[in-house]
Amino acid sequence: MPYLGSEDAVRELRRALSNPHVQSDPLRYRSSVLRAVRAMSQGVDVSDLFSEMVKACATVDVVQKKLVYVFLCSYATLNPELSLLVINTLRKDCQDPNPMVRSLALRNMTNLRLPSLVEYVEQPLTAGLRDRAACVRRVAVLGWAKLHHLQPHPEIDAAVVNELYGLLRDPDPVVMVNCLRALEEILKEEGGVAINKPITHHLLNRLKESDVWGQCEVLRILQRYHPQSEDELFDILSLLDASLVSPHAPVMAATLSLFLGLCSGLPAVSLAALERVRGPLLAACGSVSRETRFTALCHIQLLLRSLPGLMGAHYKRFFCSYAEPAYIKQRKMQVLVELVNDENVAMLLDELKGYCTDVNPETAQAAISAIGRIGRSYSDRCLEILTGLLGLKQEHITSAVLQTMCDLVWVCPQCSDTVCLALEGCDGMLQDSQGRQALLWLLAVYGERVSSAPYTLEVFIDGVRSEASLGVKMELLTTTMKLFLCRPSETQDMLGRLLHYCIEEEMDMCVRDQALLYYRLLHCGIEETRKVLQGRRSDPSLGVLIGRPAEPISQWASSFNTLEPLRQGGVATEPASRGSPEHVTFDPKPNTDLSDTLNCSQIEKVNLDSDGASRFTYSSANVPARSLSLSPVLSPEAFERLWMQRHASHAEQGAEKLEEEEDYVCLEEHIQCPAVPYCSPQSLQAAMQLVNIQTLAFTPPHTLPWRVYLYTHTQHAHSGSTLIVGELLYTGEPSRRVVAVKKCTEDGDVVEEEEEAGMLSGRELVKKDEEEEEIKVTLKQQPRDDKALKDFLSILTTVLHTHN
Amino acid sequence: MSASAVFILDLKGKVLICRNYKGNMDMNEIDHFMPILMKREEEAEATPLVTHGSSHFLWIKHSNLYLVAMTKKNANASLVYTFLYKIVQVFKEYFKELEEESIRDNFVTVYELMDEVMDFGFPQTTDSKILQEYITQQGHKLEVGAPRPPATITNAVSWRSEGIKYRKNEVFMDVIESVNLLVSASGSVLRSEIVGTIKLRVVLSGMPELRLGLNDKVLFEITGREKSKAVELEDVKFHQCVRLSRFENDRTISFIPPDGESELMSYRLNTTVKPLIWIESVIEKFSHSRVEIKVKARSNFKTRSTANSVSILVPVPSDADSPKFKTSTGSAKWVPEKSAVQWNIKSFPGGKEYVMRASFGLPSVDSDELEAKRPITVNFEIPYFTVSGIQVRYLKIIEKSGYHALPWVRYITQSGDYQLRTN
């Protein structure tokens, strides 16, 4: 930014610098140099002073030297010829007895960035690598990297590379790390520095000597090493274990990154590593520096993609504090949405509700859409909050709520009643176009059930002339058409007016064409119009509880500990709203009876093929007469109704083991198969479908409590068919009842042994407990048929057992 | 990590000082930084990462300065931020305050430091103790013949140089705990955490070897003294001088301390403690006429301790006027720029309860704006007391020459992020 009079300033400076009186007074000389550098950093073009500054370089005053070098390095590229003059001084300084001066000269020599000077720099650099003082070696090593960056020079590089590999054994840790950095740069084409076993072990052994920067560098480069055997791998891992919980967040992140890389083939070890970094990660989330906090949050989002349950118990750590910046609040909310479960949902929603009235509209909007996301699993509570928010009559809140409701009813059609009720009070007072579009869309879909819909629409149509947003106009056309189909008498007049305006007066082509299209469509008759306009509504089988399947760690491991997670803006974890692919939809093909009803004798064959056949328990003698079938299809809504109704009656009567009514039975059973909650929903679903059990909803793997809802019909030649609905529940805690049963069935020896083990080490016992963890199966059958239920249970047990 | 360049900008985005470390990016790219940041700030989403084309700016703000690292690689973000904070710390140790003025006044030193802390985009020497040995602020004095590089650059003990001499040998140790608290409007504690630091001021000659004994729970378990009162420390971070291997083996904290002031260790405790100062508030808003505020503050610590300079900040509507106060102790005043009442109590003994009442007039015309629900914040300081109960059991000082040195220990508990939400 040159300012007026900069030329005068330069002239004045030149006069001062070349004045022999000034030059003879070291203090005045230095202050003149300082003024030149200050002018430079203020953006004044002082490149004309280059030759004067070159002269000023020949001084014994180190501070002046440094200043001059700063100047020269900035302008060297503009004056390559004059720069040659500096080289002499620099080379002389490289011989100086003081290592500080040597390293300073060497560093600036390589900072000049002039290809023409390379030949003069090489010799001092080579000497620098063998200097006695570590600070000179540090500079020299990086100097080679700079030189290569400037001008790759293959034949010299080969020799240098060898020397640099040798210097990896330098006693100074910074020299060692700088060697790695330099080799990375020089060997970039060949994929960076080559890491073999001795180098790896050398680096690992000296890891502790380095500072944070060095450790991170070493850990990053070690990612390239592939251990030759499993033993070696575990040796490395145990060496790194301490760094994994390092209090320095960057070291911890770098170690985790290395762990994930090394253990890509060992999911259990990666999992254990992730569990171990939970503490340090949470600590980073509470760091004083908001940047560190933000980075940690972004990385936690990454981890949650694979392990949704990792932070479940620590949800309170993600509650926002009042003074936090909006970008941190928004990330925290995105994390909170992932952590919701049966236990904390009330607390979480209460907290999010508080954020909805944040003064920052973006934060408020983020909170509202977070509630909407949770609403996919806990629709009633969330809708209650959302409708409550509408009562505030705050424009940006109403707009956000309507947008959220759009998304919510699309995936959870059962919410539509509440939404319709809420729509009654909404009028056209919204200012922002997205909110208005959302309102119109909702009216289009549910206009039939909202009594005030035509009045709301009328406000829009009356104001269409002043409407600026294209999207709103298009939405308005569609909505009016749709409403006309279901409430013709009320809307006919306004539809006419709207079409007239859009065709005759509207300037925008898109709106006009759309209006014309609708107009002509109406000419084809009402039935035809209905067929065109009333396309598919949301799929009723969209999930009740379905979560996103967990991604494998390898999906994101490579972007861990880089800039990438910070850039995504949460897009990756925030799936597209309407009709997004995360909602696994099942097509049970209701009409093809033949393929759907699978005789149970076939199951046995299937299972014998799989490796779990040894644990096959049920006898095939009573099977042939009975089979499972998926038809008639049970919709998720119907399922929910049935389940809840049965649930209520169950609760009233107290928790009895087997409770009976004339036509209905409820059974609770425990099955041992701890691995099932960790397998992917898709594979379990496939296994169930093989035997004609339809799964309706899953919680993602690794979350606690883990649930699956399922149903099937049993068909029997004599007793007719019954419907069975069921829930698999895994809470992660061993149930008391089962332990008791175990004790009386198992002989005394085993129990004693277990106690002994417990005395020796607590760890052993914990492990045993884990093995005893079981899945609770709750089945409800209608009408009652005990035998069929027993058979079904044994089939289910077999499937679960063979599945892991 | 690799930063191509580091900039220090003033609030308007003007470059005060910059260093081009790698020379692979156009230094003028920085001109795009401020406009993008301004635009984002309006939208309240000024994330610490700003991208323009292929250039990424990672920035932090310190008083009236922006420190920006520019890179075009997919760099290690957490490391870059750590580095930026590190140089802020280095500057602060040199100039006491880091702000626009101090950068301008210490132009030469800043250039020298920026030269040393990073080379070719890689952090080099960032320990201010070492840097201070060969980069001095004596800008006016002439240094004929540069200072020798400190032996520390290769020395095993890189944070302390040899030959330090004092007439009187002393060590001052401050154990400071700050309490972070978040209480919901209904009065339940959402988050409670103690962050502790142990700070040292070392005035010792030679190469002394120090050993610090704390009432560490793990240590007590090892030594079998489980009955005594002990504290379970989490996330313990040490200054690099502490021998980590010894700590990992037998929980001994032994070190050769850096000269002068330093932070020896920090720790965190997640245990829920009784909130030291508990606030109950009733804020009644009669729209169009007035707001009535009643705040009750209770001290939940032993009577022998006293909280000093307690200040309780209670939010009031921004359009409130004509304040009236009544306090049972201390003084209350209206701080219109913060839209809050500040209630100051000089000394607040334990086990006491005080009340403050305030009333404000409200304009008869209601503003449509939604008021933020701001929390009540509390600041306090309790000397001679630690919430966690941590204690320095001993601090042994051993030096070859066998001089006698005195250790001084002081405990302080203070408020950190201490917030109670209001209805």
Explain what the structure shows:
The complex is a heterodimer of chains A (804) and B (423). Chain A is of the alpha+beta class. Chain A is 60% helix and 6% strand. In chain A, a hairpin with a 7-residue loop joins strand 5 and strand 6. In chain B, the strands form 5 sheets. Chain B has a 9-stranded mixed β-sheet, with no helix packed on it. A 5-stranded antiparallel β-sheet of chain B has the order 2-1-5-4-3, sandwiched between helices. Chain B has a 4-stranded antiparallel β-sheet with strand order 14-15-20-17, with no helix packed on it. With 423 residues, chain B is α+β, with helices and mostly antiparallel strands. The longest helix of chain B has 19 residues. The interface between A and B is large, with 96 and 85 residues.
Question: Quick gist of this model?
Answer:
The complex is a heterodimer of chains A (804) and B (423). Chain A has 804 residues and is α+β, with helices and mostly antiparallel strands.
Number of helices of chain B: 7
Cα shape of chain A: flat
**What structural class do you assign from the helix and strand content of chain A?**
alpha+beta
Q: Assess the beta-strand content of chain A as a share of residues.
A: 5-15%
What key attributes describe this structure?
heterodimer, A: 804 residues, alpha+beta, eight-stranded antiparallel β-sheet, 39 helices, 8 strands, flat, B: 423 residues, nine-stranded mixed β-sheet, five-stranded antiparallel β-sheet, 7 helices, 23 strands
Protein topology:
The complex is a heterodimer of chains A (804) and B (423).
Chain A: H1 6-18, H2 20-24, H3 26-41, H4 50-56, H5 62-75, H6 80-93, H7 99-111, H8 118-129, H9 134-150, H10 154-167, H11 173-186, H12 197-205, H13 212-222, H14 230-244, H15 249-262, H16 267-285, H17 290-306, H18 326-339, H19 345-355, H20 361-375, H21 379-390, H22 395-411, H23 416-424, H24 433-446, H25 453-462, H26 470-486, H27 488-504, H28 509-523, H29 526-533, H30 554-557, H31 564-567, H32 593-596, E1 598-599, H33 600-609, E2 626-629, H34 636-652, E3 658-660, E4 665-671, H35 681-690, E5 694-698, E6 706-716, E7 720-730, H36 736-745, H37 748-760, H38 762-772, E8 775-782, H39 786-803
Antiparallel strand pairs in A: 1-2, 2-6, 3-4, 4-8, 5-6, 6-7, 7-8
Helix pairs in contact in A: 1-3, 3-5, 4-5, 4-6, 5-7, 6-7, 7-8, 7-9, 8-9, 9-11, 10-11, 11-13, 13-15, 14-15, 15-16, 16-17, 17-18, 18-20, 19-20, 20-21, 20-22, 21-22, 22-24, 24-26, 25-26, 26-27, 26-28, 26-29, 27-28, 35-39, 37-38
Chain B: E1 5-10, E2 15-20, H1 33-42, E3 49-52, E4 55-62, E5 65-71, H2 77-95, H3 100-105, H4 107-117, E6 118-119, E7 122-123, H5 128-134, E8 170-183, E9 189-203, E10 209-214, H6 217-223, E11 234-238, H7 244-250, E12 253-255, E13 260-269, E14 277-286, E15 290-299, E16 306-315, E17 321-327, E18 331-335, E19 340-349, E20 353-361, E21 376-383, E22 392-398, E23 406-420
